[in-house]
Hints:
Elements: E1 3-10, H1 15-29, E2 33-40, E3 48-49, H2 54-66, H3 68-71, H4 90-97, E4 101-104, H5 114-118, E5 124-127, H6 160-175, E6 181-184, H7 187-195, E7 204-206, H8 221-228, E8 236-240, H9 252-262, E9 272-276, E10 291-295, H10 300-309, E11 312-315, H11 324-331, E12 336-339, H12 344-347, E13 354-357, H13 362-375, H14 378-392, H15 394-410
Parallel strand pairs: 1-2, 1-4, 2-3, 4-5, 5-6, 6-7, 8-9, 8-11, 9-10, 11-12, 12-13
Amino acid sequence: MIDVLHVSHSYTKGGAARAAYRIHLAIRQCGAKSRMIVNHGKPIADDVYAPTSFMHRVSATVRPHLLRPLSRIGKNIEGLVSFGLINSTIPSHISKLSPKVVHLHWVNFEMLSISDISRIRQPIIWTLHDMWPMCGIEHYNNTLSWANGYRLSSTSMANQTTNWNRIIWMHKKRTWTTPITIVSPSRWLAQCSLKSELMNNWPVKIIPNAIDTNAWKPIDKMFARELLGLPQDIPILLFGAHSGSDDKRKGFDYLVKSLEYIKNDSELKDLQLLVFGERNSSHNNILPFPCNYTGYLYDELSLRIAYNAANLMVIPSILDNLPNTGLEAQSCGVPIVAFNVGGLSDIVQHKKTGFLARPFDAQDLARGIEWIIKSRNPSLAIESRQRAVHLWSNDVIGSKYRDLYDELYSS
């Protein structure tokens, strides 16, 4: 039986962490031996290894902040950056646990350094939860600078951020001399990997993230709204992301613009928004419709109730891999309106499980919202649910990973 060890910064905090833990559970459900080692969170029986000694906990807490001053030098990149320069003891812990396969996930916040990854002796699979492994210090980049190795022009030499991208990218190129098997949850990120000068000769597989479709399922909409204290007879539009209204990559500004196009529609005059992931927003004074905030939902039951209270979910991301919110909404039978970018086209089937708008066209995003609410088509919910079960359920994804482990270990 294959023995796999997942390495992830956390198993609870953040979308990548939850996706990693769900993959771990799906693999266990398929009969493989699966464990995790994390830097953030409490140990769970024989499932999850986490820092237990005082010094290890202090180190795990402090390490993410040690290089933060570097990220502020000439920083002109929006969003998270990571350097991966501080070596850790994780490779020695991996060696002691002696798994047959090491499965990397989101290992930033200085959990693993670039050099640490090269010190792992077991066969490695790396599931990409963003673009950092192929980039310099960035986690997302909507140019092609990651594809050509951040080559410096005479005008960019003065740009300290560009220099850091080039320095870290070159460090990865020099250090990762043995190809790593890459798993991309989306077709888009797989294509990026193949275009990348760093990874274009690495094996790449496409395996979506997993979701427990027995838990994430439709419930009575009226009951869900009653639990949340929401009106029963109005259309409710859902948006969710951790501090999503302030993260430009999540596209909340485009959602606001799209609502301006429909605010005078008499059939949608009672529309309300439901937002999870934050308590309030500076956008309140410009939103043309009332907005209800749930705050950050720490338990999955509350989140499932929020999905089931909505008529549709809008994911207006400018760039995204395979967001958990999309899988969760579709598994609960909630249609999605999104831009046709990144991995969102893997989640949404246009006019079958939602609406894919032209990229960054707020008016087309508005058309999608109007189309779903006005059509009142029950097949959208049915198709969404059926597709989620068929593509992303634990048994489907767990089996795909089990086959990949067998292939990697036997080769």
